[in-house]
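Human: If only I could read backbone structure tokens as easily as an amino acid sequence. Underneath my words sits a plain record pairing an amino acid chain with its backbone structure tokens. Take your time, and here it is.
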Amino acid sequence: FKGGDTCEYLLSSGRFLGEKVWQPHSCMMHKYKNSEAKNCLIDKHVVFIGDSRIRQLFYSFIKLINPQVKEEGIKHGNIPFEDKSASIKVDFLWYPEVNGSMRQRIKSWAEGSVAKPHIIVVGAATWSIKIHNGSNEALAQYKINITSIAPLLEKLAISSDVYWVLQDPVYEDMLSESRKMITNEKIDAYNEAAVRILNSSSRNSKAKVKVFSVSKLIAQETIMKSADGLHLPESSRDTNAMILMNVYCNKIMKPIDGSCCQPQPPLTLIQKIAFCFFTLSIFGYLIISLIHRNNYRKNKSCTDLESGEEKKPAISTPNVSTLEMLLHCFCKLGLIMTYFYLCDRANLFMKENKFYTHSSFFIPIVYILVLGVFYTENTKETKVLNREQTDEWKGWMQLVILIYHISGASTFLPVYMHIRVLVAAYLFQTGYGHFSYFWIKGDFGVYRVCQVLFRLNFLVVVLCIVMDRPYQFYYFVPLVTVWFMIIYATLAVWPQIVQKKANGSCLWHFGLLLKLICLLTCIYFLSYSQGAFEKIFSFWPLSKCFELNGNVYEWWFRWKLDRYVVFHGMLFAFIYLALQKHQMISEGKGDPLFSNRVSNVLLFISIVSFLTYSVWASSCKNKTECNELHPSVSVVQILAFILIRNIPGYVRSVYSSFFAWFGKISLELFICQYHIWLAADTKGILVLIPGYPMFNVLVSTFIFVCVAHEISQITNDLAQIVVPKDNSTLLKRLLCIAGFFSGLHFFSAMQDQPRH
């Protein structure tokens, strides 16, 4: 760890991912859009001073503001640019040599009454080499001139951002005869002189002239593609311009995926309170542990010398043990949350951009598939979608989604469409599982609701506090939470129709179908009425939960994307349980689900449907159009998979314990990846071990999985304490939880006032 100044890394080091994607060392670079560039540079004056290479950089920079600009200015003269809509001025000043003229111009800003530019980019040397035929006298004069300019640049750096651009290498074989004297050896000598003089002249580190040396590294990889051996290809100079934009704008715009040059965010009031709470929990647990250990030693059972029997102390301290368990959970959680904060909020660990290649996605998929098949065991029961099978399904889907996220495969549309089906399959299971429970058990009590809501939301609420993120940021949890409440409301509202009641009369089945039709109608209406949807979720306190960036559009988009699949899951559960009740399917070990003929026909249709969907998803050309069709057609592949997995008796009787283990902690894995496996809120990759990508992934993955497993255990333990079965005790706990959220809202309002 060399310190938190990622600007130095951005300006001096990095590597290419593929051919065109530049990865700075240790941090992430944001790709600025025109609107963002304008917002950052509003009312700013930027000046580029130098030769034709600096002119190239100037044009690439202004194209970030206005892509329509054409390179048709005077070659050996000054070129002005102005964007009146944002009051941005960018000037190129033709000073091909570091000489008296350049010094006079810089002096007019440093010591005169002329308004100083906000950003100054300077660089020149190749003309001096060319005009003086690469003589040593020219180099000596260059050193004298830059020595006289350095104090002026340093003075300007107090109030402006000043960058000295080092000279890029040339491709000597392509240089014309008039430029043959410009050699890489000479360029290195000039660069060495500039670095030595500029660094030695600095009296104040805060007023330091920033040396832009990263362009040298970029040029070394790309100069072979140059048209004349001297000037960089367009993609390389665009990269340099984007680096400049990141250096200046990241601290102003604070993009999530631009960690370079961003200062560590200050702790909020809520984060400070959370830190104090976890610290007290750790100390409280240690104190209670010491007290218990001392009591145990004092009351340790001893042998009665007369009877020869052990005397056991009659000590019963259930309240203390519950408190100890509570503090133990918060103690572990506090240590884990510290790791979360260090990984994704403190500038302690490095972060890098994602870069997709087919091999980075498909090779790990094949690897986990082999592992999953290797760990095959017999199921305890052979019902359709039994517990082991659903855990297995969640597990392999979660692992595929994790690989999809870390490899950046969202840029490859066929993979994106298949991942959308996996997310839909999770929601399908939500509809299937909760409907089955309420239909069979008929348990609509508060205890069941609170248990589910606690297990779904506990980790996310803690992360919202510790990581200072809105609830909607972890979009999947709000999604499954809302759908659970919709399922509950649909079945719990009068008349309550459950399996036991429906067995008495077929009319109850029609009543339930009527409820499902009403639900489908409401879903259809809300999906095509954005205004009505936004009005519902814009009321307080729902707005506090579902707003992101000041509106609920993101929540509407996420909900709409898989709007029918939960209904499909409920309908499938109803049909399956009806078939099971009337003994129309065979679920014995090794038996096909239906008769041989029917099973073979359904299996053939399922395989064809599964492959047809994959062909359609792979042929997608437009993400928006495919997303419009996805809610209606995703169920095809989901149902096809269920039938393929369950119709053959042998396939239904086995499961992968490897995948099932991950399935049991799938929710924790999905949420934890945001901050301790990925980085910058999923936009990048966490780097614990720089320079060794594979080793880094292995180490960070091991820690990530262990943490997710531990949080799953903590959640289960706390659920037993926070959500007791006794109704009167549960009511008191609910009042405490209401008080907690009221306090959270109060402190949130307090910390939002200074922000506004």
Notes: Residues 269-298 form the longest helix (30 residues).
